[in-house]
Structures are given as C-alpha cells and as structure tokens.
Amino acid sequence: MRGLAPLFLGLFGTFAFSWLGLTVIPNIQIGALNPQMDEEGTDIYPMPKSGMAERGRRVYAANGCAYCHSQQLRPGYISADLDRVRDAGPSPRPKWGDRRSAPRDYLFDRPLQIGQERMGPDLAGMGKAAPSEEEKPAAPPESAPSGSTAGTQPPQPPNAVAQKPPAGGASPAATNAPAQISPTPASNPSSPNPRGMPPAYSAAWHYRHLYSPRSMTPDNVDSTMPAYKFLYEKRPISGERSADALELNGADAPPPGWEVVPTYDAKCLVAYLMSLDQSHPLKEVKSFGGAAPAPAGSPAAATAPSGSPPPAPAKK
Amino acid sequence: MTPATGIPLKEPTISAAASDAEQLERARIDASTRVPVLMFYASAMVWLLLGTLLAGFVSFTTHSPDWFSNVSFLTWGRLRPVVVNVIIYGWASMAAMGTATWLMARLCRTTLRHPLLIVAGTWFWNIGVLIGVVAILMGYSTGYQWLEFPPYAALVLLVAYALIMSWAVLMFRFRRGEQIFITQWYLLGAFLWFPWLYAAAQAMLFVVPVQGVMQAAVGWWYGNNLLFLWFGAIGLGTAYYMIPKVIGRPVYSYHLATIGFWTYVLFSSWTGMQRGVDGPFPAWMVTASIAATILTIIPVATVGLNHHMTMQGYFPVMRYSPTLRFTVFGAMAYTVFSLVGILVSLRSSARYLHFTQATVAYTQMGVYAFFTMIMFGSMYYIVPRLVGREWRYATLIKLHFWASAYGIGLMSLLLFAGGIVQGSNQQDPSLPFIESAASVLPYLRGGTLAVLLLIVSHFIFAFHFGLMLFGLGRTSTVPTFLNPVEAEGSEAHL
Fold this sequence. Notes:
The complex is a heterodimer.
Chain A: H1 4-30, H2 51-62, H3 203-211, E1 232-236, E2 258-262, H4 264-275, H5 299-303
Chain B: H1 16-63, H2 76-108, H3 115-137, H4 151-173, H5 182-207, H6 214-247, H7 254-268, H8 283-295, H9 297-311, H10 322-345, H11 347-353, H12 357-387, H13 394-426, H14 433-469
Helix pairs in contact in B: 1-2, 1-3, 1-12, 1-14, 2-3, 2-4, 2-6, 2-12, 3-4, 4-5, 5-6, 6-10, 6-12, 7-9, 9-10, 10-12, 10-13, 12-13, 12-14, 13-14
C-alpha cells in the first residue's frame, strides 16, 4: 500500500466533501431565510407560534407523532398530495393543502417535525381544516335533539374552540345504545353526525380523537392511531362539571360522576395541531385552488382539479 | 487438506514452525482484547434482546393501537424511537466496536494497550444509551429521528467513544508489518467518521441550531451516513476479513478493493437527501443524493464482484462454517440493500414509495440483513478465540441463522410489498386516506410474525453466547461446524 498520508487525506477529504456539500453549503443557501411580508410590512408569514403551540410541538415530538405523520406537501406534478381531501368533515371536505411546502414555511419550526412516513395523514394544513369562525352563523344549531344525552351535539355548529357545555352531568351509561353509525359517510357527509361528533377538525374533535381515535364515526373507525389517554385525566366531578371535559359515549364514557379532562400537555398539543397552516401564499411557490377560501366553504376549492400537469414546476 | 468429501477446506500454507509462532502471537493478541471485546458483545447482546422484545411489542401495538394507552411510556410513539435507538446505539454500535477492536488488534498484530480504559468506555457507552432510552420513555425525546437522545446523553456517548476509539487508533500507531489491509481502511474510516458525524449533527441541531428545514437535511445526512459510513464501513471491513480468512484464500483483487472503497466513501456519503424527495428543499440537494445513490452501484458491483471471486469455488464451505454463512448472507444483503436503495430513490418510483413502509424496509435491510448478519458472523468467529472454547451446539447456530434469515427476509419482503400497496393507494386521491393505512395493515401483521422469528433467533443466540461466556463451550481444538465434516477439515480456520 501507498503511504498513510494519502489514506488519511482521502478519509478526511471525502467525508468533509459530503459534510460541506449536504449541510454547510445548503445552510448558506437556505439557512437564513426571512419571513415574507408585503410592502407595508403587515402581512407577515410565517409567524412564530404561540407559547402553547410551541409547547405542543414538544409534546408532538416527544410522542413520536412524526413517525406516522408528515408535515410536508409535495408538488402536484409528482404526487396526489394537493388533490387529496381529508377523510372527515363536511362536504366538500377540506383539502390537504393548496400548494406544495417550501423551506420558508418552516422558519420557526424547532424541532422540525417534517416526518417521512404516512401511516396517518399529512398534517401540514391541519389547522386550516378546522371549521372556520365565519361559518358560524351559516349553520344555526338545530338544537341538540335530546339535551339530556351528553355527547349529542348539533350537526355542524362550528364551535371551533370550546366544547359545548353539557346539558346535564356526565353521560349516563344509557347512551351506549347501539348508535346509528352512518352507513353513508362519503355520500352525505354533511348530514348530522351520529353520536354527537364535534365538527371535524375543531379543537373538540381533536381532543376526542386523541383520546379515542376509533370512536370518531363515521370516518375514523378504522384509524390505526394509538390512543393518547395518558394525556387526559379521569377524575371525579367536584361540583360543576368542568367546561373542558370530553363528551364521550359508549365504551369510552367515564362512569357517572366522573369526567375526562385534557391535561395541559393535551391542550398544548391541540393548540399546536390547530396552528398548523401552510395556506398563506408564498411568492416562490405556486398555489392552486384560488385564494385559499374557507376550507369547508368553497366548493370551488375542493373540486378544482388543482393543477395536475402544471406548465412549469413550481420552484422550490 | 481437502477432506474426502471434496470440500475445499484449506490448510494454511505456512510451515509448522512459523505457524506455531504465529499461533502464539495471535493467542497473545486475543488475550489482550478478551475483556473489552467480550464486554462489548455482552452489552450488545443485552441491548439486542431488549430491542427485539420491544420491537415485538411495538409491532403488536401497530395493529392493536389501544393497548396501554393510559401508560405514556408504553405507547407506540415512545417505544418506536426507543427500539430504533436501542438497536442502533445499543446493539449495532457496540457490536461494531467490539468486532472493530478485535480486528484492529489482529490486523495491526499488536496487543491492545490499556484494555481497562476501553472497558470503562464500554460502561460509559452503556450508561449513555440507558440515559437516552429513559429520557425518551419519559418524554424528553428531541424529536429528530435517530437522534432522539437528548444532548446530555449524546455527550456521554461521545466521551465514551473517545475513551474507546483512541485506543483502537493507538493500536494502529503500534502496528507491525508493512501492509495495511483493506479492512483497516474501512475501520480507520469508520473510527474517524463516526465522531465527526455525531458531533456535527449534535452541534448543528442543538449547539448552534440550523434554521427550519435544514434540521431535516442535517438529520438525513446524519442518518444515511451513520448507516453507510459507520455500520456499513465496519460491516464491509469485517466481510473483507472474514471471507478470505475462513476459506484461507487472499482477497481476489486488491485493485477492485481500492476502487470499491473510495467509490463507496465518495458516493454513499452523499446519500440521504433522497429521503426528502420533492420535499421543501432546494431541488439540487435531493438530486445530488439521488445521483449519489445511483452511483453506489459502482462500489456495490466492485465489492460484490470481489467477494464473489474470492468465494468462487468455495461456496460449499458455507455448509460448514457459521461465520462464512452469516457473513456471505450479509455481503449479499448489502447488494440487495443497495439496489433497493436505488429503487426507493429514483423519482419515478419514489412517488409511490415515499412516505410508506418501503422506506422502513430499506433501512431494516441495511441495519439488519446487511450489517447485523455480518456482526453475527464475526461473533461466531471471534468469541471462541476469546474464551478458548468452541460453540457447543451446531443445531443452535443453524436455528439462529435460519430464524434470522427468514425473519429479516420475511420482514423486508412484507414491508416492501406493503409499501407498494400503501403508496399506490396514497397516490389515488379518490380513495380516502385511511384506505392506504388499512391496506398495509395485513403486511404489518405479517411483520409481527417476522419479529417473533427474530426474537426466537436472538434468544437462541444469547443463550449460546451465555454458555460461551460462562465457560460452558466445548473444549476442543476443532471449531464447531454446522454439519459434520471429516476430521481433516479441522485445520481450516473456520
């Protein structure tokens, strides 16, 4: 063999080449991006998340959510990501997103939870899928049919953040009567949800989904997501029932006199999920589906073919 | 000398006297590495058992997701990273360091100095892994895949590493003989690259954190380089030692070995970003990694050809030698693993395989079918030389081999096939998303079966290893053959 110097130089040089090429140089290219803003400097995107959502990201990371959920949308010419709609929600269902993800979307993300697996759906636009506030007056609560049955909620009252205060105490065991599971999940999704589901992708929905993923009829009964019951506290009701107690029925329902309330971690996690939104247009990326209307509101958004063969691939 | 069966089991071509002196020297070297290497192996075995048991549990919870949802540290989301990290840092890294230390001593023809310092390093490493695992279980995972250990655990690992590998490198300083064997290239490379890789990743994620998507770039660069330049390099280096050693024949071509080595380092170190294909990254990064992945066909072809030509005419020895059987399996798996890697990377197929179980299958083939099998092979070779006993039961070795081979084969096939189904369903927007997850579930159930096979295989091996460790191996000058050979075969270095 030749001398040692070439060997060590080679070992060192080849690896330095890869280190510089794949981490250092890209870091010079995209490692110091600024948020995008318009001329007046008002419409700033992205913005740092709230404290709760930031902490929620840590909960998300600590519990390995990224092992099953990605937070990145691929461009339309390579994948179906932009054509896809979510499994739940009123018709037309919310889309995963209107544009591909770009480096700028993740400016403030730490730890970055971009993911590389999709056993569960992509979450890049999760918050955007939540029922919007403006929609509230459009769907006046048709009044819960039987106020005494806890866990029965009006069909699609947006009620985005807070749970409905229950009419009366904990859900009695009687509610686990064989609930009418809707046999037509897709054809008539805007029909009143059976078993009092909260509006899809509202905070209440997330709370319940995290607690008991397979109770989310009619769209998630086959979900393979683990339940995160440890993020909740089951405790006896002292006096008033807590405002944030979960509306549960069937096998998940706590015994009478008990309630299930989310811990602070669960609240942060839901705040984080609700904060995920990449719908803001970016200059460097082409958006499809118009000006990102209310996800549930505009049929145009969901039915638009969302650019299968774009003339020019959206730049990174 | 060739036994009557016509099996080409070779006798060493050196004279009896020289052989004696050499035997003595080897025995002295082996004795100096005895405690640290066995320490590495024993720790690695414990982590392996823990890792596979947890992997079985995790595999069950994949399709029974309501299990233990009240207990935070028994949920899938925490145990899955634990399994990955235990296998990578507990089992694979410790087995790698054990084998590498022994090989380095043998190849440098020098005794291991200050073995107790290495033993201390082993303890530190174990403590580091333990701290990291407990931290993940308690919910302090960093959230970066393969780097879930919190920085303080990583610091312990780096200190341990410094204690361990400085002595291995020191051996190189005191080497005797002119030749630097190809295995030493791989080992020296791995010794140099790992601390750089690990420290650079830690620094760029935690000390002077990079912004936004660069975190993923650093993560993938780290992950793939760990796979190729730490595990892969030690695995290939070991194969380059074991195959010629067992069949008693030199490496077919040194030129091929050189080309294979440098192209391997150059190209495989640039892979990684293909895991972010079409993600939010500059396209050139992904393209460069895809190109590098395609170019790894060159080292695969040269290394594969070299091993094949070395083995030419000696394949029947695999019937007898446990080391050779495991090593050749691993070397062949390296070829398959690399070809699958190319398939997973190409943009046209990546659109169906990205985000699916197929990428999991790819990683498992690298860590297990390729690397772990070679490590098993090396342990079958090295442990008898350290404890002075031979493996007691040929049947157990055979069971271990077949359970491992079928286990990982089944696992890879199922996950890969499941990934294709999953990916095609994901690419069809008219199907609800849940269809894609549901369609892969049957394959994951099969995967659970495969994990059970691996658990069986590892417990068999651990039991056998335990016998050796407690001096219950056979006292014999004849190595344990998988199948009976006529007595003349005993001189071969099986």
